[in-house]
């Protein structure tokens, strides 16, 4: 039983940023345990990113190419990963805490008769045990948990750990693994991918998020926020009040019943700061609030606060970015 394994999640052949962050965690964990890192790449076509995985910290990259693995589907991905992990018997398997990573982690734990710890924001080794620290109860408490029975299966929260710096001089081994899969044995098939909004920055991956609440006043009020977001290269996030009013679709909602985000900067405009909204902001490094009401609870969690009308402040911020030549879009 040895080694720390990591699943390199890819979409349309490109390894996701969260997978590199997870590989960085795996490397540190393996160094502490005095063992190696094996990365598993599953997909179709040419796996030219295997070399990159070695530069990022993997010692071995297992490349599994098969037509049934081109697009993520739970059944074939789980079948291959279970087979590889059963043979390799690692101490731990790390996956990014994406919808797919969490699904696969749960499936793998069930197949191997162990447990999956999802959404780790800290990973440590104590007395030889792998400990994951995870937010629970909407982030009000942190649980320190370990898995009794190896392998420990962990999913790692996006943007909670840095992406490793590549070291092109690192040496490693690329192993091509042949698998036999019968595509007709799997009940799902991906017919096509539909991109909802071309070129939009995803809330989960954004380094900056511009948030809008009921104070924005209506769907048209979001235009200045969108302009600021474009200028900053930021994503847009909203409160449930905005979604419930039908101004902006649910996929932009941040909070207890929406997304949990971890950007470096969150600019909250016309947002009161209800606990259910704040629970989606636990991983945010710096919050800036713009609100007319000096008593708004958002100011209790904001590093910087502006007590003023957002329709005055937001366009002024965008104009200042443009004036200084810092605006992106
Ligand atoms: P409000 O609370 O109405 O605040 C609007 C703010 O805008 C006020 O502070 C006001 O001073 C300010 N304002 C108004 N005009 C301006 C202006 N021109 N310039 C500057 N400031 C201005 N909420 C979420 O966000 N996410 C969730 O996931 C979520 N889940 C929930 C789950 C449950 C079970 C429940 C019960 C509630 C949930 N809520 C959630 C709702 C939450 O309780 C709040 O109702 C909601 O977050 C309030 O949204 P808001 O801040 O946009 O609106």
Describe this structure in words.
The chain is an alpha/beta fold. It folds into two domains: 4-185, Rossmann fold (3-Layer(aba) Sandwich), CATH 3.40.50; 208-323, TPP-binding domain (Rossmann fold), CATH 3.40.50. Helices cover 27% and strands 25% of the residues. Strands 7-11-6-1-4-5-12 form a seven-stranded parallel β-sheet, sandwiched between helices. It is elongated. The structure holds flavin-adenine dinucleotide. The site of flavin-adenine dinucleotide has 28 residues, from helix 6, helix 7, strand 16 and helix 9. Residues 213-215, 239-242, 253-258, 270-272, 274, 276-277, 280, 290-293, 296, 309-311 line the site of flavin-adenine dinucleotide.
SSE layout:
Elements (H helix, E strand, L loop, with lengths): L3 E4 L2 E2 L2 E2 L1 H17 L3 E7 L6 H6 L4 E6 L8 H15 L3 E5 L2 H14 L3 E5 L1 E5 L2 E8 L4 E6 L5 E5 L16 E4 L31 E5 L10 H10 L2 E4 L1 H5 L20 E5 L5 H4 L7 E6 L6 H4 L2 E4 L2 H14 L6
Parallel strand pairs: 1-4, 1-6, 4-5, 5-12, 6-11, 7-11, 13-14, 13-15, 15-16, 16-17
Antiparallel strand pairs: 2-3, 8-9, 9-10
The structure holds flavin-adenine dinucleotide.
